Amino acid sequence: MSKSEVDQVTDETVGKGGLLVRLYFDMQSEKEEELQPLMVDMINNKLLKSPGVVYCFGAIDEPLKREDGYSTSAIVTALFKDIGALINITFNFAPAGMEVLKPEKEFKIKPAALQAVLLDISNISVAYSHYILSKVLNKEDYDKVLKDMKNREELGKKLIEKKEQ
Fold it and tell me: From start to end of the chain, where are the E strands?
């Protein structure tokens, strides 16, 4: 894409509720030669292919020697179709920092979109809790937590049905 095409896609996407964000990533390894390929893979094969990412590009720094190994960082500019996509990337890739480039003034979100984002956050939280608990708890305690989560899910469905009536 030429610069004008990128600008046009960016302006159209931001006009429809998208966000242009600069993300800062860091990565550590005991092996210097692993760092840049891992960072390239994360950006090109994972971040770029994530749902809601329109495009991304970045620069990766040369690895630096540290006491316990090596580290590198990357600055990635990414265009997201909406705030939900940005939130998912934030949870899944845990950038060290971020800077919203566009929109420059204010960001408006419709109530339905906000509700969808909040539900996504809730689902991500449950998924991470599920993963962590499955690694920490014994089988009996884990089964009890799953049962409690199932009960919570059923209660949530009943509340939504009640509200819709």
Answer: 19-29, 53-60, 64-66, 69-80, 97-102
Tokens of 127: 């998924």
CB 77 within 8 A of CB 9: no
Of 118, 136, 140, which is closest to residue 128 (Cα–Cα)? Answer: 136
**SS3 (DSSP) at 144:** helix
What span, in angstroms and rounded, lies between the C-alpha atoms of 165 and 157? Answer: 13
The secondary element (H helix, E strand) that includes residue 158 is helix 139-164
pLDDT tens digits, residue range 24-78?
998 888 888 888 898 899 999 999 999 999 999 999 989 888 888 888 889 999 9
Our measurement of the distance from residue 157's CA atom to the centroid of its chain's CA atoms, rounded to an integer in Å, reads 26
Express each pLDDT in 6-17 by its tens digit: 889 999 999 999
Q: How far is CA 140 from the centre of its chain?
A: 32
- Under DSSP, is residue 56 helix (H, G, I), strand (E, B) or coil? strand
User: Tokens representing 100?
Assistant: 């919203």
Q: Is the backbone of residue 62 left (phi > 0), alpha (psi -120 to 50) or beta?
A: beta
8 and 79 Cβ atoms separated by less than 8 Å:
no
